[in-house]
Amino acid sequence: MRKRKFITIFAVVLILAFSLSACSDFFPVLFFTNEADDDYSIDTGDDYGDVTGTVTVSIVYPEESGLESANGEASIYENAHTALDALNIFCKINGIDITVETVTSSYVTSIGGVAENDFGDVSGWVYTVNGEEIWKAADECELADGDSIEWNFVNFSDTSF
Fold first, then answer.
1. How far apart are the C-alpha atoms of 92 and 36, rounded to whole Å?
2. Residues with Cβ < 8 Å from 92, sequence gap 6 or more?
3. Which residues contact 132 (CB under 8 A, 6 or more apart)?
4. Most buried residue, 25, 58, 98, 121, by most Cβ within 10 Å?
C-alpha cells in the first residue's frame, strides 16, 4: 500500500513538472548545473555561515548505468542546510555533476550524468532522510547534524497501477 502511494505521488509530481515546463511562457523553468570542480572548497564566510553539522550522503545509481554508488559526508551550514545543499556540496567535493530544474521549487533531474527518463519513461531521482520518504522538494527539506540522505534513481515504468 505504501509503495502504491509513493508511485502515485511520484507520477503526479512528474506530470505536474512536465505540464508546468510546457507552459514556459507563464512559468519560466530555470536550470542550474553544478559542474564538478576539483579545486572546489567551501567558503564558510558570508555565503554559508558557520558549520552546524555533518550529514551522510549516498547516491544509488541504477544498475544499468554501470556506475558505482557514491557515499560520504558533507558539512551543513547556517545558510546551507537543506537536502539539496548537502547534495550540491557532496557532489562538488566528489566531482559529480548535477542538474536541478527550478519552477517554484527545485527538482533534481540528473546526478552523475544519469537523468530522469534515462532508464524508463517514468523514472527519476527521489530521496530519503534517515530512511523515511520525503514528500517535498529537496530545497525545502531542512537537515540536522547526523542526518543521512540517500538519493535513489527509481524506475516506475515497469510498475502496474
1. 5
2. 34, 36, 37, 40
3. none
4. 98
Count of alpha carbons within 13 Å of 132, Cβ hemisphere only? Answer: 7
pLDDT of residue 32: 43
Sort strands 114-115 and 106-111 into parallel, antiparallel or unpaired.
antiparallel
Give the pLDDT score at 100. Answer: 93
CATH class assigned to 2-155: mainly beta
Q: Which long-range contacts (CB under 8 A, 24 or more apart) does 78-82 make?
A: 78/48, 78/49, 78/50, 78/52, 79/47, 79/48, 79/49, 80/47, 80/48, 80/49, 81/52, 81/53, 81/142, 81/143, 81/144, 82/138, 82/139, 82/140, 82/141, 82/142, 82/143
The neighbour count for residue 141, using CB atoms within 10 Å, is 19
| DSSP-H helix ranges across the chain | 2-22, 83-94
Put simply, whether the predicted model's pTM sits higher than 0.85 gets the answer no
Q: Are strands 70-77 and 51-60 parallel, antiparallel or unpaired?
A: antiparallel
Specify the 3-state DSSP secondary structure of 12.
helix
Is 58 in contact with 70 (CB distance < 8 Å)? yes
